[in-house]
Amino acid sequence: MEIFMRGVSWNVDLEQVKAHLTTFLHADYFEHLHPTRMNFHVYLHPDKKKLHRHGGTGVLTLPNEETATHFLELFSTAHPRIPIALDRKVIIFSKSNKQQPRKDVLEKIMLPYMDPWVVEERERRVQQLTQGKVRINILQFGWECRDYVYSVECEKDCHNSAVLSFSEERRELQIEFQHEGEIYIIAMTYSHIREITVHNYLNQDPVILFMLHMPPTYMCKQQSICERLSFLPIPDHKRVAPYASLAIRLVCTSPGELGEFRRLSRVAQLHKVMDYEYPVDSRNIFSAVAFQLLEQYLRNFHWCISFQITALLRSLVLDVQEILELIPDIVEIFREQGKEFTAALLRKFASHPKLAMYTTEEAGAGNDDTLSQCLRETERNLLQNPMLSVPKPSEGSLYDAFHVTITPTTMTLEGPFPERSNRVIRAYHPRHHESFLRVSFLDESKLQYRFDREINGPAFIRARVGPFLHNQLEIAGRIFHFLAYSQSALKEHAVWFVKSFNDNHGNLVTADSIIKSLGNFETLDRNLIFCPARYAARISQAFTATDAVAVTVEEILPIEDICTADGKYQFTDGVGTMSKELSREVYTQLKKTKRRRRMAANSAPSAYQIRLGGSKGMLSVDYKLRGMTICIRPSMTKFDGSDWNTIEIARSFDRPGQYFLNRPLIMLLEGLGVRYEVFEDYQNIAVMETKRARVSLGAAATGLFDRYGLGTSFRLSSVLLNLEKLGIYDLPNSPFYSKMLDYSINHVLRDLKNHARIPVPGAWTLVGVADVHRYLLPNQIFACVKPANGRTVYLQGPVLISRSPTIHPGDAMIVEAIGRPPPGSCFHAEPIPNTVVFSVQGDRPTPSCLGGGDLDGDVYNLIPLNDLPEFRPTKSYMPANYDPAPRKMLDRPSTMADVAEFVMEYINSDVVGIIAINWLLIADQSPEHIFDEKCMKLADLHSNAVDYPKSGQPVALSEIPKPIRAKPDWHAPETVGTSTGDFYESSRAIGRLFRAIDLPIEQEGRDAHIGHRRGPAGRRRQTAVNDLGERLRSVDIGNDPVFMAVEDRVLDYIDTDRLTEDRTPINNLFEEYSTQLRAICLSHTLSHARTARLSEEEAIVGTIVQKTSQRRKRKDMMATLRESTDVLVRSIREELAGEDGVTNEQYLARSWIAWDLAREKTQFGGHSFAWLALGAIFDAIREIDEEGSRR
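Now predict its structure.
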């Protein structure tokens, strides 16, 4: 609304008027209308006589009528309640005669407020950086050698035509040069720079040397957009780019350019500039001749050995010359010990050169070990410990997985890692598992490719990824072909490749033969084969990670789906039934795959997510079925599969999930009328209980580790509770435990701040199934919640139900829970615990209203409003239709070449994340909140984007509504501060929750950098001495209350002084554990730096401290970290437990020895192995007690 102003002094200008009005408009007068500062616009009419700077009148525009009315009540008329005077003249305000303000002005002031000083400072910084250039004469790419010499491997004489500039908007340095008439750019993101050295080399060459965590982006500049490249078209760069892109050396045109670079670095707030000199040489390390020679060796070695050698080279642990030097040793070891030993040796050796390079003193300081000696030392250690294969639990569904990651400039090889297998992998003998590769296509930062308006992304994906998918992937002379993907892998931009092999019957197995063996994809849906995405989605069922259960099913009964009267919806979409007997047998068979059959003693789950032949979905128990019976519905059967004899378990639902709020859900509930204070209260409780973890071990166990799923691989919560039972309430003398707490608390607070992941006690997350007995009325649900160690709860009354992700106002609705089932009802006979049972009556299934959900394994979030009435919305909204997206069809049957095309298109067109974040941003910025028309359009597009992997129909970027350029403070990446002028203070609930959390000062894990290239040697020696002293103090068991308390407890069962167990196997077990844990920590860091490794504390907790611009990547990496440590810990505990013939007392004795040994270890893994062994001690004691109670 516009307000007319008159009486403005001719002696003041526009900026003075705005500054003076700011003191009133941003005062307490308007706080009830604008919790954060508001924008406004001032326009002064020009003086028509041209005598003064303005005409003394003007217009003040305020965001809305309510604000303007309140302003006039305070400041209008000739005698205002509060006069606004400037230059001793009172400004007179009155309502403007103009009906509507200017549209452009209104749009501007509707935006959230940004501090003018911050904006001005940013503009000043941008202007300085835009105008500043550093002139470059020579561009060099090189390698940091082990003796701290920089070897130039490729260079370009730019003849003084290259320039280095700073881009504030993109937060990157750009080197621009010309070559053969084209303009090329090398872009280095600020956060990817490890360090910068600026010096005048030998008083002759003014040098800027960049050491990077990951390779830069190479581009060719076109008229409207840049073409991204894997290498530059300069001599030798194609060959050396995968290895020599982390150290870039610039020789400037004059020493004065170094001063200009330092000045611009300060303006850009780049604080990694040093001044030490780096020796330079041209050693031709990565010569064509060297690669040809290495390739000959790799072709002749067994694949498992060649894989590990290539992994050493590609991970930049060794350079090609160093590997060639080691070849004679490798050949000799192979001839003496065989391929399995040699491959295991090379994998273990992968961490040894890093330690030799980065933690020893400078060259000549007493460490003369050659790489050959290091390799032989590793051989001796491995011979003492004959465990060659990666330790893994005894369950049959795990296999050794080989991973390849292809980035724009290089590829990295990792593994083998024990992972959950799938139907295809299990079809072949374990010796053939190495023929399968899991290949990921990621950006250099190990993050997914992101849309960049300045880069032609589709063209680059086609150029980089296309040749691998359409033709072949060659590694060490072996040829792999694209095979398929699972749906979860596709979302991670990962697929399967396979190299041809002969199976046990002598038959040739190829990618084509594997696809043909899966079944018939045309009999059930003749249009399926014409849609590449749909066809690939059906193939992907066979690649879902599952547990295989060999159960003889007596009957597989086809039953019809339950549909609405009009046939539009299916109430039973994706869910069938099974008998109680079958449920128990599946559970029994799952237990049999575990050595000593140590599984939870609770009853069999009543719901499983399964794969069976060409069918997929959920099975819930039907108490009326008898025998070993399964009922399959048409909505579950996707194709005519070839194997109906084996049930594959994707997931069993034996316990309820906790309920956590998140940003989209909070934004939605706020829009529906739930007060901010509700979210604030629960966040405050979460913060308080998290910080209480320091009070006692019990508080840490229940309020931190157990609630947030931290330390689950090592069963930390159980160990802590057992220690508390022994009278140990704190561990004040354990720096390792203290650091574990620090990382855990920081993890939770970071999740609260960056994701609003707020726990809601008393609310639940449950998998959905159908009421096959038609007991429930429309809009009714039944939910029986049976926690592992708690009382059974029946939800009753109104329940707020939703399903993640929430994006439409109708995605949260209220349903009626019937409570405890009446005697004689179907739910009294079988309550199907830890599921939410939906009605099969009414006009539309409830799940379809919740983000287009179904019963194929979707989980639902439930808040019982009788218990938590504060979450009841004051508004409701009709759910969206969620009509299925149209399929992208071909006029001919699809081939795997078409599937490959779809994979490339998906990498470019996966916009679910963009749509979701734009919805949040626009809802934050718009006065209409979640009801803004752009938000409603985004909700529609989101549904199509979610369907894209199965429909093949992408959502065009041009269709996606965009938010304004300025972003809310909660959207700032972790690597960027909010005070840069690009972010405003959000007034929405998620913004206020974000600012309410103060994160402690974050430090990378102690081992995040195994060592620094050039720290003062004396200081590093002192650090090592201090660390050793700390470890020695930790083994002073005379006064250790933990040792004494645990020993007293163990003495109740065995005599620790008379143990006859051989300690050597357990020591070997620790050595292998240490090696595998180190490998896990090396492969799960977010950094590409050669020194990067997670700390032991991060590994045991299951978190990653390092900041990242893509938080989802850290989440995914933490998930795989926890899976890897879980497999490792379970395998070690099984080794301690022994085979079925080993007594529980022997299990306890071995665990005691393991704990005693670990306390003496000073090497990596010693601390966490002690916690692992302590957990095994308590587990063995529990088993002895249970065995005694059964007698």
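The first strand starts at residue 2 and ends at 6.
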